[in-house]
Design brief:
The structure holds two protein chains of two kinds. By secondary structure, chain A is of the alpha+beta class. Chain A is built from eight helices and four strands; from the N terminus they run H-H-H-H-H-E-H-H-E-E-E-H. In chain A, strand 3 and strand 4 form a beta hairpin. The chains are: A alpha+beta, B alpha/beta. Chains A and B meet through helix 4 and helix 5 of A and strand 7 of B.
Amino acid sequence: MSSANGIDSILRRHANAGRESLIPILQEVQERQGYLSREAVVEIGRHLGLPASKIYGVATFYNQFRFQPRGRHHFMVCRGTACHVKGSGKALEMLTRMLKLKPGQTSRDGMFSLEVVACMGACGLAPVVNLNGEFHAKVTPRRLAAIIAECRRMEEAEHVQA
Amino acid sequence: MMSDVVRIEVDGREVEARPGETILEVLRREAVHVPTLCHLEGLPPSGACRMCIVELEGAPTLVPSCSYPVVAGMKIRSRSPKVLAARRMIVELLLSSHPDDCLYCGRSGRCDLQALARDLGVRQRRSQPRGTRRERDVSSPSIVRDPDKCVLCGKCVRVCEEVQGVAAIDFVGRGARTEVGCAFESGLNVSSCVNCGQCILACPTGALTERSYVDEVLEALADPDKVVVVQHAPAVSVTLAEEFGLPPGQDVDGRMVAALRRVGFDRVFDTSFTADLTIMEEGSELAHRIRTGGVLPMLTSCSPGWIKFVEQFYPDFIPNVSTCKSPQQMMGAIVKRFWALREQVRPQDVVSVSIMPCTAKKFECGREEMGCDHVPDVDYVLTTRELGELLRMHGLDLWRLEPEAADTPFGERTSAGKLFGASGGVMEAAVRTAHWMLTGRELEELEIGPLRGLAGCKELHARIDGLEIGAAVVSGLGNARRLLDQVRGGRKDLHFIEVMTCPGGCVAGGGQPIGTDPATVAARMKALYTIDRDAPVRVSHRNASVKRLYDEFLGEPLGEISHRLLHTHYHRRDVLK
């Protein structure tokens, strides 16, 4: 399992590491896998002599760690001050409802995932939603519905081709 | 030379303190009441709840007494208006996100938060909790977690990790969203939780409670087609009185038996009987292992939290674990597979209930190994607390009942079996009988001091008939971990190790009355030692009913029937750990 995860080499680099190396290891594993899987957390725990509950506790303290792989369409909603004032709360609520996902979750079919971030540095375009690296400025609920519909159309087209 | 006492002033009164002590330790010794929510005696302070704040002259803010060391000449005010106002504010803030359902809460009347609100005069709600309720974790057969009632004091997390060495739970998330939970927010049932329930004893509120089976038992009692048999564990009779507000250390054995009959149980048996039986089986197993070069040291198997602990953390020690079932499960097996036949009742028409000081027993009775043809040997386990609830429900006043004797044949016990309720008791009973088995003579001094008391690790090295025997007793799984690591590391002088999951043994079990502090546990232990001191029969091998059971049914210890009913094997268990 661990070799399939590819975290063996990471753990080898931290051969005699103690608990102080936990966060760097978590970062490297997430960098490699895109998220922290159960198997990875258990494996890291075994390596550092830490219980899984402790690692999960540390990892959930920080926003940077996720526990599900990203979806093919990854939404990041900015909840920074400017976006908040311009209605990003509504945008997030809309996405949560339409995608049936809570922030941090990925849909079972792997199509969508949703994440909340603090600020993307594009306050002039507030409220901002980022989809797979692409910025969508001044989003409205209607605009978001159209974006999601477009994602579904793309998926269907690919499905037909395949 | 540095003086070993310093003087400080508390509320205008001069008191003595030792350097290095915390303010809280001094205040408690001086009988100054200081409320705490997160403080755990014997563990380093965490300073999380701030309930213990006091006013320290010259300090810019109130200081937490639990983590503030005394300094000569310091002046403390422990209940100035400023202190009381701050404490009340803390409680109000905790209540601002706490549900208002005390009437429906199992901890009502025994809740530290409720008591603080009452004592500090909190009489109105100034802010409403947010509407969304968080999900309760009801996945475990032993323990229910209700995050809505959690005040994040962290005691459960610390007991689980620092005392028990299990660490099934930790703080998850951050800030206002912080919750206590398992890794990946999974249920307790798939976590490394060993169901010991020490977290329940530590919890100041109703956030952690036992999974109740009172309703199921009431239903069985009301069913005319069922024969309902109850057994009670050695440690229950010395703690039940606390459920009714009496000081710890009173034995109410006979009154409890009377009360159980009034509730409607058809037969009342004593688990101490099968504790005696365990000694016969386990003693023979140990002798067999020593004689045939079997796997040593042998580890006891009475404590189900410990068994799960071995299965998941130390599977390499499974061959060391005695194959004996626990006394609860032995009783379950002989009631359904022997007694039922004799009484001409079908095993499936017997409902076997056990009253235990333990939440892990609830898990144990549901284990696959503990039954036959899909009929479990024990159906429901109630804790001492649930028995208190059951008796209150029936309006039974223990003090108005005349003591009664348990039913034959499984109600007869020796005080050796009764000692199982305290850490070291299994070993003491075993040594008494082993001496007789090996030499044919009774031990002259039955009381074995080194095995008694609250210490987490106790050892005994003795020479019996030329045979050098090394015995160790540990309670609290953190201590078990340390000892097993020594054995793994090559320690060879031990033949027999008794392990109890809970620190102090079953008298401090996770199913015992709320308010299980070290002084209480010591009083409960003393009650068991008194029973032993005054008992007419103090060695398991002189239990006449056990002898008769062997003559009429079992044959001999480790015999074929014993092997089938009283012994089992355990397997490695994969959990999220």
